[in-house]
C-alpha cells in the first residue's frame, strides 16, 4: 500500500469532519475513548483511500479484505443494545459495493460518500456520546444531498437537478421532525437549503470541478461549526 503522498484529500477532509460531528455536543463524550478513536481513524482513512479505487474497479483481493478487518475490531465490543446503530453504515457500505458491482458508478460514489459520513454514528456510540444521533443524522443527510449536488454539477453527469431538490426536501422534513426540541439547530440548514433547492446550472467545464470542491469544503466547515454551536446551545438551554 502506498503510504506516500495523500491523493484523496476529500476523503480525509470528510473523515475529520465526521469525527468532529461524532463529538457534538461535546457534553457527554468519554474523553479516553475519544482519544483512542484518533489512531483508529488514522488507520482507517488511509485504508479507505487505498481500497476505494479497488472497490470501484472491482479488483479486491484477499489481502485487501484482510486490511478491512483491523478497523472493524473495536466496534465488535460495542454494547449489545447499541449494535443496531452499526446497521446504517453497514447497509450503506453493502449498497455501495452493490452499485459498483452493477456498474452504477455515479450512485456508488454518492452512497459511498454517505457511508463515510454515516460512520459518525458508530463513532458516536464508541465514545459513549449519548447525544450523537441528531447531529449525525443532520450530517448524513447533508452529505448525501451534497454528493448528489456535486454529481449534478459535473457537466458529463446525467443527473437532473430535481433529484437534488427532492433529496433535500425529504431531508428537511426528517430533520425538522427531529428538531422539535432544539429548533435553534435549524439555523444550520439555511445555507445548504439555498444551495440545494436552487442548485443553478451545471458547470461549463470539468476544470471548474476543483473550484467547486474548494467552495464546498468551506461550506462543509461552516455547516459543522453551526451544527456544533447550535446543537450544543440547545442542550445547555433546552426549551422543553
TrEMBL record:
<feature type="transmembrane region" description="Helical">
    <location>
        <begin position="221"/>
        <end position="238"/>
    </location>
</feature>
<keyword id="KW-0812">Transmembrane</keyword>
<keyword id="KW-1133">Transmembrane helix</keyword>
<keyword id="KW-0472">Membrane</keyword>
<feature type="transmembrane region" description="Helical">
    <location>
        <begin position="162"/>
        <end position="180"/>
    </location>
</feature>
<feature type="transmembrane region" description="Helical">
    <location>
        <begin position="132"/>
        <end position="150"/>
    </location>
</feature>
<feature type="transmembrane region" description="Helical">
    <location>
        <begin position="9"/>
        <end position="28"/>
    </location>
</feature>
<feature type="transmembrane region" description="Helical">
    <location>
        <begin position="83"/>
        <end position="101"/>
    </location>
</feature>
<protein>
    <submittedName>
        <fullName>Uncharacterized protein</fullName>
    </submittedName>
</protein>
<feature type="transmembrane region" description="Helical">
    <location>
        <begin position="34"/>
        <end position="51"/>
    </location>
</feature>
Amino acid at each position: 500500500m502506498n503510504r506516500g503522498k495523500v491523493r484523496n484529500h476529500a476523503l480525509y477532509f470528510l473523515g475529520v469532519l465526521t469525527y468532529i460531528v461524532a463529538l457534538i455536543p461535546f457534553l457527554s463524550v468519554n474523553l479516553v475513548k475519544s482519544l483512542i478513536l484518533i489512531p483508529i481513524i488514522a488507520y482507517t482513512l488511509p485504508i479507505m483511500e487505498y481500497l476505494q479505487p479497488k472497490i470501484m474497479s472491482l479488483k479486491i483481493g484477499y489481502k485487501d479484505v484482510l486490511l478491512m478487518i483491523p478497523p472493524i475490531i473495536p466496534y465488535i465490543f460495542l454494547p449489545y443494545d447499541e449494535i443496531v446503530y452499526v446497521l446504517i453504515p453497514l447497509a450503506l457500505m453493502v449498497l455501495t459495493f452493490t452499485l459498483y458491482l452493477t456498474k452504477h458508478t455515479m450512485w456508488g460514489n454518492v452512497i459511498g460518500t454517505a457511508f463515510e459520513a454515516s460512520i459518525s454514528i458508530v463513532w458516536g456510540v464508541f465514545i459513549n456520546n449519548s447525544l450523537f444521533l441528531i447531529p449525525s443524522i443532520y450530517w448524513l443527510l447533508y452529505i448525501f444531498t451534497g454528493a448528489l449536488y456535486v454529481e449534478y454539477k459535473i457537466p458529463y453527469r446525467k443527473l437532473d437537478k430535481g433529484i437534488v431538490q427532492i433529496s433535500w426536501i425529504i431531508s428537511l422534513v426528517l430533520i425538522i421532525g427531529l428538531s422539535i426540541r432544539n429548533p435553534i439547530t435549524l439555523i444550520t440548514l439555511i445555507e445548504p437549503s439555498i444551495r440545494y433547492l436552487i442548485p443553478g446550472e451545471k458547470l461549463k467545464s470539468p476544470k471548474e470541478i476543483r473550484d467547486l470542491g474548494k467552495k464546498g469544503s468551506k461550506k462543509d466547515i461552516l455547516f459543522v461549526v453551526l451544527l456544533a454551536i447550535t446543537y450544543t446551545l440547545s442542550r445547555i438551554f433546552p426549551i422543553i
